[in-house]
Amino acid sequence: MTLKNKKILIIIGGGIAAYKSLDLIRLLKKNSVEIKTILTKSGREFVTPLSLSTLTKSKTFENMFDSVSESEIDHISLSRWADIILVVPTTANFMSKLSIGKAEDLATTVLLAADKDILLVPAMNVRMWLHKATQANLKILQDFGYIFLGPEKGEMACGEFGEGKMSSPRQIFAYLKNYFDKKNIVKGKNFKALVTAGPTREYIDPIRYISNESSGKQGYEIAVALNKLGIKTTLITGPSKISFPKSIKVKKIISADEMLNEVKKTLPVDLAVCTAAVTDFKPAEKSKNKIKKDKLNFKSISFIKNDDILDFLSKNNRNRPKIVAGFSAETKNVIKNSTLKMKNKNCDIMFANDVSKKDIGFNSDFNKVSIIDQKGNIKIIPKNKKSFIANKIAQILLDKLIDDRNIN
Ligand code: CTP
């Protein structure tokens, strides 16, 4: 039983859907989950501390400065104790507090101090959910790393119909089961990944080079996201102004040849993600000394093609990673050209970027990607922060990795 002895902290927010938290607790308890609860002041208007403590068989925490409970377990230990934290239901007001980092009561303080995944399960009137303020808060919270489940479409307690209904206890339970199932698999398999990122530089002489606009940001974020999922990740990066993520192993390179060398040295891995904007060509000759301008033939420089790293990884029979993912940069016919690239290079999945737009892609904090797989399925991750897109991509790649493992 995946959920047996898992520790879940449930914060009960102040909405009519709060009553469903009782059903959820019963379901989890039946599966031997250890539960602690925090009841917010407005949550208390909908469920009582007595019903919570009866179901959980443990005290419900309510006050930040309640000396009895603080001596039993303080707000920091409470968040450290949990394997995951849930907010059921998450109201519009609660989202707004979290989006500005409030720590005004026990619930918000625990969440601000948390080092675990936090699952927010929203429930509110459809207009409140679709309000620009709530949607802006949603983006901020997703960027902070909060996970959202729902809301669903349906009839709400207020009688209106639309998006805003809280996910059912069964849906929350299924999410948690899947969450811990995956964690268990990842823990047991010791998955390893490599991510290539940034531009490469191809020097003409010691001070002049050709390169491109890539910032490396999307690749860095993907490496961090994979690592967070428990996949041991090595980032192989060309020159970038972004500071290196502390949590992962980073190998710095300059040219495409060096990148390919480091990739070879990092094999074997289970997953390879090629986000690097590898410079396709290098000067046929690199001068040892600075070329004097009267000697430089500025009309033409001879170039030769660099090896294709993605192609090498996908067609490397001896050491092929289980999953090889590419990133395609295109300015027109994005889907058609990216699909062709995926087929030619034989990678398993291609994330296509339109780099003709200024507000997404190269050098932007935002991106929008089309996901193309070998079966011809195309899905879009709409415009969002690169960190959010990276988390989505990491989840998709982990699912693929697990799927493939199960088949073998
Ligand atoms: N790639 C690579 N090595 C190269 C060139 C590209 O690994 N020498 C990888 C990139 O990291 C990316 C994918 O191939 O995952 C697609 O790169 P992209 O620049 O979009 O296309 P190219 O293959 O270079 O083709 P073109 O420039 O003609 O679009």
Outline of this structure?
With 408 residues, the chain is an alpha/beta fold. It has 14 helices and 20 strands. α1 (20-30) packs parallel to α2, α5 (92-99) crosses α8 and α10 (217-228) packs across α14.
Supply the key terms:
eight-stranded mixed sheet, binds cytidine-5'-triphosphate, six-stranded parallel sheet, 24% strand, 2 domains, 20 strands, Rossmann fold, 408 residues, single chain, alpha/beta, 14 helices, 37% helix
Can you tell me about this structure?
The chain folds into two domains: 179 residues, Rossmann fold; 215 residues, Rossmann fold (3-Layer(aba) Sandwich), CATH 3.40.50.10300. Helix content is 37%, strand content 24%. A hairpin with a 4-residue loop joins β19 and β20. α4 packs across α6. The protein is elongated and about 85 Å long. It has 14 helices and 20 strands. With 408 residues, the chain is α/β, with parallel strands linked by helices.
How many structural domains can be distinguished in the coordinates? 2
Strands, total number: 20
Globally, the shape reads elongated
Average predicted confidence as pLDDT? 91
Tally of alpha and pi helices: 14
Provide the list of bound ligands, each named once.
Answer: cytidine-5'-triphosphate
Strand share of the residues? 15-25%
Q: Given the helix and strand composition, which structural class is it? A: alpha/beta
State the CATH superfamily name of the largest domain: CoaB-like
Kindly provide the radius of gyration, computed on alpha-carbon positions and rounded to a whole number of angstroms.
25 Å
The CATH C-level class name of the largest domain: Alpha Beta
Query: Strand order, biggest sheet?
Result: 13-12-9-14-17-18-19-20
Largest sheet: 8 strands, mixed
Distance between the termini: 23 Å
Percent of residues in helices comes to 25-40%
Remind me, CATH topology of the largest domain? Rossmann fold
Parts with pLDDT < 50 across at least 5 consecutive residues: none
Based on the coordinates given, report the CATH architecture of the largest domain: 3-Layer(aba) Sandwich
Multimerization state: single chain
